[in-house]
Amino acid sequence: MATPKDSIAFVAEGTLPQLDPPANSVGPVKWLRENLFSTPANTLLTVASFYVIYMILGQVLPWVMNGLWTTGSLSECREILQGETGACFSVLTERWHQLLYGFKYPASEYWRPNLAVVLLLVAAAPVLFFDLPRKLLIFTALYPFIAYWLIWGGTILAPVVGLLGFVGAGLVFRTLGRDNFALGFIGAIGAALVVWYVGGALIPEGASDNAVLQAVPSRDLGGFMLNLMLGVTCVSLSLPLGIALALGRQSNMPLIKGICVVFIEFVRGVPLITLLFVASVMLSYFFPPDSTVDLFLRVVIMITLFSSAYIAEVIRGGLAALPKGQYEAADSLGLAYPEAMRLIILPQALKISIPGIVNVAVGLFKDTTLVSVISMFDLVGMIRGPILASTEWNGVYWELLGFAALLFFVVCYGISQYSQWLERRLATDHR
Amino acid sequence: MKKSVFLGALTVAGLAAGAAAAGTLDDVKARGKLNCGVTTGLVGFAAPDANGNWEGFDVGMCRAVAAAVLGDPAAVEFVPTTGKTRFTALASGEIDMLARNTTWTFSRDVDLKFEFVGVNYYDGQGFMVPKELGVSSAKELDGATVCIQTGTTTELNLADFFRSNNISYEPVPVETNAESQQQYLSGACDVYTTDASGLAATRATFEAPGEHVVLPEIISKEPLGPLVRHGDNEWGDVVRWTLNALISAEELGVTSANVAELAAGTDVPETNRLLGSEGTLGAMLGLDADWAKKAIMAGGNYGELFEKNIGEATPIALSRGLNASYKDGGLLYSPPFR
Amino acid sequence: MTTLTDPPKASFRLSMLIYDTRYRSLTFQAIAAIMLALCIWFLGNNLIQNLRAAGLNISYGFLGDPAGYDINQRLVEYDSQSSHAKAALVGILNTLLVAVLACITATVFGVIAGVLRLSNNWLVSKLMAVYVEIFRNIPVLIWIIIIFTIMTAVMPAPRDFRGDDATAGMVLDLFAFTNRGVYIPMPYFQNGIFANAAMNWILVLAGFVLSLVITRQITSRANAKQEATGVRPRTLLPILAAWFVPFAVLMLVMGLTFEVPALKGFNFKGGIKVGGPLIALWFALSIYTGAFIAENVRAGIQAINKGQTEAAAALGLRSGRIMNLVVLPQALRVIIPPLISQFLNITKNSSLAIAVGYADITATLGGITLNQTGRAIECVLLLMLFYLTASLLISMAMNFYNASVKLKER
Description:
By secondary structure, chain A is mainly alpha-helical. Chain A contains 17 helices and one strand.
C-alpha cells in the first residue's frame, strides 16, 4: 500500500490549532457591531442617540458640578457664579425642612413624621413580602393608630379609642358572624360606633392641651410629608371600599349593581381636580350645619372615593380573570356567598390584582400633587407658593422642581420595581 | 360649646364642631383660637416668613381681633385661601373672618351674603411695567400682554378699562403671585396688573425694583376690608369695632408704646371710653373692658401697623395716600366711640 | 335540579326574608335603597339648611350675565360683554383643542418610543427605557410646570427681538419662537372665490375630499386589474397627481399668500399665534402620556407570537414591512383599548391647564367665573357634567371599536 503521502498532495496530519475569532466578531467590538452598528439605519440612530445624550449631559453636568450649596439667596449665587452656569442648590439646604414638612410643622417635632415613615416601612413589609412571618401583620394593624398619634400628637386616648372600636367590632363579628355573616357585619359596625361614641364622650375636653406629644393641627401639615400621608391614607382606605364596589358591580342584585356602576363610572369620568374643587368649595355645604370638617379630611374623603373607583375596576378585572370553575366549586361545597368570597374567590382575585392595585397606588401618589391647586402646601404647593415668592429665592426654578421630581421619581420607581418583581413572582406561582 | 362628634379615630382632629346658632363670638371664645382667612402669600399683607410665622398688614388685623376677643394676639389659626376658596371657606364656617385683600363690592355684599365690616385699605388697580419699555401711561399699552393676578375684581376692571379706551390687549390670568412674578420677570408679559398695593409688594421682592415702574393710572376703586358672614351681627360688630378702634387709636394718638400708660386714665374722654377706663363699651360687645387696649397692644394702632408692614420704611414703601387719617387728608375716619 | 315542585305559596313567613335565598336579595336591596335614600336625604338636607343659613340659593341665572373678563385664546367670537355661558363654551372648545392635539402627538411619541424600545439597537432601546421610566414616575403636574417654565424662562421675550443688538431672531424670517408663544405665517387667499374666508377654506377641504375619492378610484381599479391580470399597474404618479393638481389649481386661482408675523409694538402681529400655555400643556401632556402609550405599544407588540414575525421573515419581507404589514395590524387589537383610556386620561389631565393659565373650561367656568360670581356649587357641578359627558362619549366610542375589532370566532 502506497502511503497517502505519495499519492495525495496534502493530507492533514493533525487538527490545526484553534485561532481566535476575527477581531470584529468577539468581545466589545462584536457587541458594538451587533447592538449599535448592525445596519446603516442603526448606525444613524446610534449617532443620533449619542448626540442627544451629549446635549443633555453637556447642559446638565456643568450646571450640577458648579452648584453652590451654602449661599443665602439667589442674588448671592449669581454674584459668586459671575454669569457661569451653575445651580443654586443652597435653596435646598436652606429650605429643605419646608419642602419636606411644610412651613408650619414645629421644627422640634420633625422626628415624629420621620419615625412614622420608618415604621411605615416596617408595617408595609409583611403586606408586600409574603415570606415574612405573618405575626408582623399585628403591627401592620396597629400602625394607623401609632402613625396618627405620632403625626397629629395630642392625647393618646383618641387613637386608643379608635383602636378599641375596631377591636370591639372584631369581637362582635367573631361571636355573631360565625353563623350569620350579615348579622355579624351589622353588629360589628354597631359595636364600633358605640365604642367610638362612648369613648369620644369620655375623652376630657382639654385632653390634648398638655399631651406627651404636642398636638399639631392638620392645617400645619405640608411638604412631601403631606403627599406621602395623603397617598398612604387614601390608598389604604380605598382598598376595602374598592373591594366592596367591585363585588357590588358583580352582584346580581340590580339595585346594588346599579349604585356601584353609577358611582364607579361617575368618579372615573371626572378629573381628580374637579373632585378636589368639590372638597375645597362644595363639600362643606354637605356636612351638618354646626360642624366644620377640616380641609385635610375633606380632601382625604374625595381622593379615597376617587381611588376606590379605580381600585374597584382593577379588582373586577381580577374577579373576571378567575376561572368560572372556582365559583362553581365554591357553590358545590355549599358555601354561602360571604364564605365563598372570603375563603375562595377574593384571596385568588386579589392576588391577581396586586400589580394593578400597585399601579393605581403609584398613579394616586403622583396625583396628590394636585392638592397644591386648592391652596394646600404640599411639595409642589410649597415650591410654587412661599418659596418662589420669597425675596431670596425668587427665580430658583430648576433646583426646586428638579428636587421635587427626584423625590417622586425615587418613590414611584421603587414601587414600580416592586410591582414588577411581584408580577414575576406571581407568574411563576401560576405555572 | 363643643360637641364631640366621633366618626372614627382619624376624624377626631378634623371634626371640631361648633354650633353656628350660638354665634361666632361664642365659638371663637370656646375654641380659644380665631380662624382667620388670609392670602396664600403676598409679602407685606400676609405671608409666612422663613420660620413659618405669618406676618403682614392683614395678619395684623387678625391678630388685633384675636387679642380683643381672646386676649392673645398669637391665638390665631391662619387659613391660606385662594381667590376661589375664600368665599366658601367663610360661608361654610371654616374661617371666622376673612382678611384677604378682598374688594367690597355690591354683589359680594348683597348677593353672596357677606358683611364687610369696614375698609382697612383703600386701594385701586394699577399697572407695573419694566422701565426699559418706556411706557409712561396705561393708555400707551395698546396690544400689550397683561399678566393679571386673578382674585379681586382685577379681570373685570381691566376689561372695562381697555374697552372704554378702545385699545386691545392680551390677558394672561395667573392664580398666584409667585407665578405672575415668574411670568412678568421673564418677559412673558409686558405689564403686570393687580391692586396698587399688591404691585408695590411684588416689586419689593424683585432683585432690582428700580427697573420697574408703577404707572400713574389707577383704574378702579378697590376698598379692601375684612369681612364676615351675613347675619351674625354680634360677631360683625366685634370685627368692625376692632378695626375702628385701631383707626381711632391713631386719631387719638394712642400707640402700642403709650397704651398701657393711657389706659390708666386720661383727660380725653373718648380715649378713656376706647381703652375701657370709662363707660362699658367692652361689655356691650360682649368683651372685656380693656379689649381695645389689647387689640392696640397686639401690633399697634392703624398707623403703626401700616408703617411696620407696608409703610415707607419697609421694602414695599407704600405712602399713606388715601389711607391717611382724615386729619391728614386721607379717608380713614372712625365713627366715634360713644 | 331535581325538585320541580313549586314552593308552597301560602307558607311565606317573614323570616324567609332573611333565610331564604330567593327573598334575601330583596331584603338587601331594600336595605340598600333605604340607606341610599337616607344618605341623599342627609346630604340634601344639610345642603338646604346650610344654604338657608347663609342666605344663598342655587340658581343658574348667572350664566346669562355678561362675563366681564377677556380670554386670550378663543376659537369662537368672544369679548368681555359675552355671557358666562359663552365663556364656558370658549373654555370647552379650548379643552377639546388641547385634548385632541395632545392625543395625536402623544400617540406619535408613544408609538415611536414603544417601537424603538424594542429596537435591537442597545443604546436606543435603553434611551427609550429611560424616557419611559422618567416620565411615568414623575407627576404630570410637575412636568407641566417644568415645561411651562422652560417656555417662559428660557425662550426669548419679544422685546429681545427688537433693536439692532437683538439677542434673538426669527427662524428663516418666518417663525418667531417667543416666551409668549410661537408665531407662524398664516396662509390666506388674496382673491378668494367667496368673500368669507371660512368658505374658501371649506372649498379647499372639498378639494381634498375630491382627491381622496380619485385616489380610492385609482387604487380600486389597480386592485381589480391586479386580480384580473396579475400585474399591478403603477399608481404612484396618478395618485400624486390626484393630490397635487386640485390643490395647486385652487391655490393658484385664489392666490394663496402668507401673512408673516412681524414685531409691532409690544407683540408680534400677524400670522398665527400658538400661545405659550397651550404649547406647554400640549407638549407636557403628550410627552407624559406618550410614555404610557409607549408601554402599551410595547406590550401589544410583544403579545404577538414570535412565529408571526418569523413567518413574515420567511416570506422574505423586510423588517419595516414585517412591522407594518404583519405585526402592527395584529398588535393594534391589543393596543387600542388602553390607548383610548390614555386619551381619556389626556382629556381629564387637560384640566391641569389651570396651573399654566391656559383658558380651558376649568380656568374659565371653574376659575374666573366661579371667582367672580361666587357660585361655587353651580360651577363645579357644570364642570363635572362636562367632563362626565366627554368621558362617556369617548368610552362609547371605545366600546364600538372593541366590538368591531373583536376576533370573530366561528
